[in-house]
Amino acid sequence: MNQLLSPQTLDFFASYLLAGFVFMSVRSWFVAGERPKINETLVESLILSLINQMIALFTIAAISTSWRDENTSIVLVLQNVAQPFVLGLAVGWMANRNWFPQGLRRLVMPTVRPVNPAVDFAFDSLGGPSYVVLRFEDGGEIYGYFGKASMASFENENGGIFLEAIYDVDADDWFEVFPRRSAWIDTTKMRSIEFLDVKDVEHA
């Protein structure tokens, strides 16, 4: 335990993990994406920390040697917290405007993970049960109820939607099919999804 709390260990942690984590966290304010896996976070922290240290060779070197020797704690904070914070702001702001060429972008954004597809965002944002209209490439439509026991998955080509109930629609009135049944719908050929508030359908 004493070794873990030694100045050498704390300095290593600050130089190789903390600085990169600050850099990465601030940058994420501007760059939307999925949360990276823990191993990706560690690798990215190390890469960004090394970039931070390379820049610190010029920024910290500009401070007089005598002042640095007398204020080592302040220098540590400047190098491993303040500087990566500013770098994260700058990199995130420029990346958000797509100002980086591809090679440099990969250097300052080592872990690239896609933003959630719009359809996943739509289902994640549902405030509660909803009636849905699924429209397909061949012009077909399916009317159903997406509730607490329903499920949607779009992670691969075998994804689909499980609807708790299927409906027929006549003159804007929804009638549950008889006998009552639920269904798993293949979404491979789906063109669009429309979400209808439960109250709007039930009071139509």
Strands, helices and their partners?
Blueprint: H1 7-27, H2 38-59, H3 65-70, H4 72-96, H5 102-108, H6 118-124, E1 130-136, E2 141-146, E3 151-153, E4 160-163, E5 165-170, E6 173-176, E7 183-186, E8 190-197, H7 198-202
Antiparallel strand pairs: 1-2, 1-8, 2-5, 3-4, 4-7, 5-6
Explain the overall architecture.
The chain has 204 residues and is an alpha+beta fold. It has 2 domains: 7-108, no CATH class; 118-202, SH3 type barrels (Roll), CATH 2.30.30.100. It is 46% helix and 21% strand. It contains 7 helices and 8 strands, in the order ααααααββββββββα. Strands 6-5-2-1-8 form a 5-stranded antiparallel beta sheet. A 3-stranded antiparallel beta sheet has the order 3-4-7, with no helix packed on it. The mean pLDDT is 79.
Instruction: Output the number of helix runs.
Output: 7
Overall strand count: 8
Radius of gyration: 26 Å
Shape: rod-shaped
Strands side by side in the biggest sheet: 6-5-2-1-8
Number of domains: 2
How many strands, which pairing sense, and closed or not: the largest β-sheet? 5 strands, antiparallel
Average residue pLDDT: 79
The residue ranges in which pLDDT falls below 50 over 5 or more consecutive positions are none
- How far apart, in Å, are the first and last alpha carbons? 68 Å
Question: Which characteristics define this entry?
Answer:
8 strands, rod-shaped, five-stranded antiparallel beta sheet, single chain, 2 domains, SH3 type barrels, alpha+beta, about 45% helix
